[in-house]
Amino acid sequence: MKTRVDPDLCISCAVCTNMAPDLYIMNDDGVAEAAVTEVPADMEDLAREAAEECPSDAIINE
Ligand code: F3S
Q: How confident is the model at residue 37, as a pLDDT?
């Protein structure tokens, strides 16, 4: 699974960076971005949960 953040949708709420800091980080623009491209197999559930919890549906898993 790959994960990414749409910077145009992210409202910088920090839900993803708090719940999955190994997968998402805040960049210098104050917008979240994926810390990895390929999600480790044991973190796929976490990536799915982060996408569900993101209030602006900015996290894309594919
Ligand atoms: Fe942004 Fe959604 Fe994370 S709004 S900070 S991508 S939870």
A: 87
